[in-house]
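Troubleshooting: if your tokenizer reports a length mismatch, compare your output against this known-good record of 401 residues.
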Amino acid sequence: MKVVQINAIYGSKSTGTIVKGIQSCCEAHGIECYVAYSITDGPDKEVPRGYRIGNKLTAKWHALISRVFGKQAYFNRLTTWKFLRWLDKVNPDVVHLHNLHSNYIHLNMLLRYLAKHNIATVITMHDCWYFTGGCMHYASIGCQRWQTGCGQCPKWRQIPSYFFDRTQSVLKDRKQYLSAIPRLTMVGASEWIANEMKQSLLKDLNITFIHNGFDLNIFSPSVSDKRKDLGIANKFVILGPASKWLLPINKPTLDYFVSRMSDDMVLVLFGCTQTNNALPSNFVQIGYTKSPKEMAELYSMADVFVNCSREDTLSSLNLECQACGTPVVTYDATGSKETVDGECGFAVSTGDYEDLWGKVLEVRLQGKDSLTKQCRQWASGHFEKKSNYEKYIALYRSSTI
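Known-good structure output:
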């Protein structure tokens, strides 16, 4: 059996790591797994059975034209044609699509090819892009237009587009081209996103869900000097992602925590692109890290992880942190509620910062040590990569696709 996966990135970040993991799982089961991608951190020659779609120049050109005409994944015809000729040579039994919205491929050309050649097709929905007119998430603004056809999009400039709202015609194309593929399975990375698609114009497609998997050998309780290095050795450490905490919509959450944190507590925000001088002294800001090992050390040193995300298909941060033995408190928006069990990790109503704070105090009172083992068991029991990726192997081999 031959499988081809297509994704914007290979080998790093969330979806690139997943694609690499699925490829390794395929090879372990005797399946030839090829990967097509736009970006990789290392040399192309180090990507097993790899094919790079386009280059930096074609990607930048695609990005510019997309913004001018208001449609993403409608350009790079020549690049896509060359890729399809490579696909002819591979002659795959299954093609597995991941993220295609990074200015590197002509989506409709690809979908027409898959339909014409009757190739079994799997699409993993890491976000909402496949069943909307182009936006990746809509929950934070409460938009429901994707259920009826899009158009008059409140986020059309963020898709992004300089001049035109093309969301209605894009969603019309999605329905036409995806519905034409005879053997297609849409896989949500969470149950939440699968259920959302069942309310869309594409609800008649075959839809299921498979949770993402994580490497529990990397994400495990770790000992480090992180606390000492940050000067917070004797503090109760609340860890959180800056990308969520510093959003304008979460300012009330931030202000509420600021007003209630005692001197022996500290909030550590990671992923800060620049120092925010408006934050008080008991807030520590650190930058990005690409090292999973270093992230595991960061998760492990915290007493509690607090995520005020309002849009997440399935928060990898929540799951990685629990795999490291640290309890999580999160807003229950979108798929985040699936990442906690209510016993060692907790979800509160989105925007209820008082309850969010209350759960942090409950964790402090109970003590991290009493929850660490259960956090680890929860992560390993539901989100271990081998068992979850093998569900894709079963899907590839299933006659239903």
